[in-house]
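Q: Given only this backbone (187 positions), what sequence would you predict?
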């Protein structure tokens, strides 16, 4: 009898969990994972900028939601238009989908100015924007590779917390900027 009672309780619990999951999925509410680096899913972003050693690389979504490499333009060039290169757009999409899944490995308090982690004068900055917004949603300073060589130090600009993320996530962004720049130069 006790076995049947435990089984019935388990069935009710499973049904309740499934119902809650389905309700959340149909409500359109997006649950953010606190262990993810980005504050929102990549699908909710309109632009991402990667500044590497003083050179800014801007990636934006067009009206159809397709990613393209924008680069930086002067005021005289503000009237230009962009067309997405399908091969590059697919590569950008894959790279940002992977970056959107970046998980925080460790977090600890930032001591002083972060120079020991390469965060006082970072060589790499990553800025993420919501669609049609001039101010970034978040700005990340990317520091040195950690002693384990598998992690990289990152901090949300203005935060007093150092985070480590997998090194390959930053390597992927830098490879994307090189490919986009090469593609842009070739055209």
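A: Predicted residues:
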């Amino acid at each position: 009898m006790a076995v049947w009672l435990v089984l019935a309780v388990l069935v009710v619990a499973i049904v309740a969990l499934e119902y809650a999951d389905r309700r959340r999925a149909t409500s359109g509410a997006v649950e953010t994972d606190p262990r993810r680096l980005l504050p929102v899913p990549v699908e909710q972003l309109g632009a991402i900028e990667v500044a590497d050693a003083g050179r800014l690389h801007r990636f934006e979504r067009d009206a159809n939601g397709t990613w393209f490499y924008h680069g930086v333009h002067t005021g005289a060039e503000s009237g230009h238009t962009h067309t997405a290169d399908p091969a590059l757009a697919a590569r950008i999409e894959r790279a940002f989908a992977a970056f959107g899944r970046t998980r925080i490995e460790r977090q600890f308090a930032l001591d002083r100015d972060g120079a020991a982690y390469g965060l006082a004068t970072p060589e790499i900055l990553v800025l993420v924007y919501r669609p049609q917004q001039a101010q970034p949603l978040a700005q990340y300073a990317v520091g040195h590779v950690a002693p384990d060589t598998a992690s990289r130090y990152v901090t949300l600009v203005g935060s007093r917390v150092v985070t480590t993320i997998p090194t390959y996530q930053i390597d992927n962004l830098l490879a994307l900027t090189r490919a986009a720049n090469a593609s842009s130069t070739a055209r």
